[in-house]
Write a structure and sequence with these properties.
Distance between the termini of chain A: 25 Å
Order of helices and strands of chain A: HHHHHHHHHHHHH
Strand content of chain A: under 5%
Oligomer: heterodimer
Largest interface: A-B, 42 and 51 residues
CATH topology of one domain in chain B: MetI-like fold
Number of strands of chain A: 0
Number of domains of chain A: 1
Largest sheet of chain A: none
Helix content of chain B: over 70%
Number of helices of chain A: 13
Order of helices and strands of chain B: HHHHHHHHHHHHHH
CATH class of one domain in chain B: Mainly Alpha
Radius of gyration of chain A: 22 Å
């Protein structure tokens, strides 16, 4: 713990990012005790009320209370990001390790596949899929849709790292002493790549949230569950800006920015942890 | 530039287009047992919203063109050939109009807005990053860039929302949205062009502000690395003017990786800008996609998505082809 704290002093980005997420976690844990998330449903209050002591963030045009919406929405949005990001990372680990370690034709296929699909704008493909199942979208299957195209970047970066590790002397020794391939991957390579994996996990989560928010801003999100992006979409749809209802779009916007800035800080910090050579430049 | 390189890049370009089209064709088929396009058309027919005759003809065209009674493989080939010929069928929402015509109307707006703002952000961001990595730059500029760095991690359209609220709704300096004054006929008159520029300032600023930091941060790192190179030290030892060292020795070399990442992040930038268009009701591809989605206009969605993919692949190809001209190491690699 002590070494961790002293490390955080050297790496303030990581500390700031982690504190931001701890605060979010607290909001998550304490929020539902104070705020009734049932109030996030339409018609839970009179529509179009500005913030007051009774409704701290006011209500929208369908009578949702916006503070519960904010709580619920942050939860959903993080949930989508974490699910899609985990799936992306898992596929990336499997493909990246097998391609980087075994090489050969498998490597060629995986590398070309990931590179080609990376050039395709993810959002465009997701728009097609999501628009066909628009009426059945909920946070879970939204995460599933996004996970379909969340694996390329992790695959690519993990493969590149495995390639450089594969030829290290300690891997060579493990191989010569008769360790099996799977065991080498799990015992020698994986532990050494943990900081990288953490960094690509954060990257994958943040890319997944970006994709989710993008789809939602186009109206391609859960039609009834109040995610952050959908709240912004509805506020645009009902012309909240021109009606001066800042309390409708500003809080979800702040929440989205908060999440992204927190993720950005963590990934910046992890980058430095995983890549000590950057320290000289800083 | 060797011929082999050009051919290799062209092949990758074609591969990207083919893979994208295949994904778009097969992924929706994973959704079990429905044809939302047919459902939507039947719904339109039942409600009699638009000319019933038109819809009937469209249903027939859809059936025969995509050969829905045929095996999946035949459908796939038909779909590929339709897409390559830019035949996207009629718009479901604006019936007698073809999807291609809608795209042709929207495309110039998007290309204009995107090219100006992306190039501007790239130049400004790289310059700012270069200056930050340059030891003689006053510290103050570093703090100025901080907010931009944070904003680069936020989606473009959120910055757009904020700009609309502050500059269009509160201060009323700029129009709330749209591409030009309502009711004005397009012409080449100076007042019309001025009007277009006036309407594009806010959306363009949103894109520039949101992407500037993303160019500055890696550029700063590259600049620091480049400044440690022998040729820069030699240039300093020779007593060359700092301005010349900065631009011709350091910036020029540090820019190369930036151009690679421009090619890599094309998709993200374009997707982000499409959303900016949508919230500004800017009459480009993004708004077309936005309205098509809310009207369940599947043919338009497919057409627009295909065009976006094509445009990004094309932009990547162009950057790939320009790159060897800038970096002789690639030019001579194979020889």
């Amino acid at each position: 713990m002590r070494t961790f704290l002293s490390y955080c002093r050297r790496n303030p980005q990581l500390a700031v990012g982690l504190i931001m997420f701890l605060a979010l976690l607290l909001f998550w844990l304490i929020g539902p005790l104070v705020i009734d998330t049932d109030d996030a449903r339409p018609m839970s209050a009179l529509p179009d009320l500005s913030p007051s002591t009774e409704y701290p963030l006011g209500t929208d045009s369908t009578g949702r209370q916006l503070l519960p919406v904010l709580l619920q929405g942050t939860l959903y949005t993080l949930q989508i990001g974490l699910i899609a990001g985990s799936v992306g990372l898992l596929v990336g680990i499997i493909l990246g390790f097998s391609a980087g370690y075994f090489g050969g034709i498998l490597d060629t296929i995986v590398r070309t596949g990931a590179d080609v699909i990376l050039t395709i704008p993810t959002l465009a493909v997701l728009v097609v899929i999501a628009s066909l199942i628009k009426d059945r979208l909920d946070p879970q299957n939204m995460a599933a849709v996004i996970a379909l195209l969340a694996w390329m970047w992790p695959t690519r970066t993990i493969r590149a790292q495995v390639l450089t590790l594969r030829e290290r002397p300690y891997v060579e020794i493990a191989r010569l002493s008769g360790m099996g391939d799977v065991k080498i991957i799990l015992k020698e390579l994986l532990p050494n790549l943990l900081p990288y994996l953490a960094a690509s996990f954060v990257g994958a989560v943040s890319a997944a949230i970006l994709a989710a928010i993008g789809l939602e801003a186009l109206g391609l999100g859960p039609q009834t569950d109040p995610t952050l992006g959908m709240t912004i979409f509805w506020s645009i749809y009902y012309g909240a800006i021109l009606r001066g209802m800042w309390w409708w779009w500003a809080p979800p916007m702040a929440a989205i920015s908060y999440v992204f800035i927190g993720l950005f800080m963590i990934s910046w910090g992890l980058d430095e942890l995983a890549n000590p050579r950057l320290r000289r430049a800083a | 530039m060797s011929l082999g390189y050009v051919i290799q890049r062209l092949l990758i370009f074609l591969l990207v287009i083919w893979v994208a089209m295949t994904l778009i064709f097969f992924l929706p088929k994973l959704v079990p047992g429905r044809d939302p396009v047919m459902e939507r058309m039947t719904m339109l027919m039942a409600s009699g919203g638009i000319q019933a005759e038109g819809i009937t003809r469209m249903v027939e065209a859809y059936r025969s063109e995509f050969g829905l009674d045929q095996p999946l493989f035949v459908q796939y080939l038909r779909y590929l050939s339709n897409m390559i010929r830019f035949d996207f069928n009629y718009s479901l929402a604006q019936y007698p109009t073809k999807v291609l015509d809608l795209i042709a109307l929207a495309l110039p707006w998007t290309i204009g807005l995107l090219s100006v703002s992306v190039i501007l952000a790239f130049i400004l961001g790289s310059l700012a990053g270069g200056l930050l990595g340059w030891p003689k730059t006053p510290r103050v500029y570093g703090y100025l860039l901080g907010p931009f760095l944070l904003m680069s991690s936020v989606p473009f359209f959120l910055i757009g929302l904020l700009l609309i609220y502050v500059f269009a709704f509160k201060l009323k300096i700029f129009p709330i949205g749209g591409g030009s004054q309502f009711g004005q006929l397009p012409s080449l008159s100076p007042s019309y062009i001025l009007d277009i520029v006036y309407h594009s300032i806010l959306p363009a600023s949103a894109i520039v502000i949101a992407s500037l930091g993303g160019w500055a941060l890696p550029m700063r790192g590259m600049m620091i690395t480049t400044l440690g190179e022998d040729y820069v030290i030699l240039a300093q030892a020779r007593g060359l003017p700092p301005r010349r060292i900065f631009f011709q020795y350091a910036m020029r070399n540090a820019l190369l990786p930036q151009i690679t990442s421009l090619a890599l992040s094309m998709g993200t930038i374009v997707s982000g800008s499409l959303l900016v268009e949508a919230i500004f009701r800017y009459p480009g591809i993004g708004s077309l996609l936005f309205t098509a989605i809310s009207a369940f206009d599947y043919f338009t969605i497919y057409g627009v998505v295909f065009f976006i993919i094509l445009a990004i692949a094309l932009a990547t190809l162009i950057i790939d082809l320009i790159y060897p001209l800038l970096d002789p190491r690639i030019r001579y690699q194979k020889q």
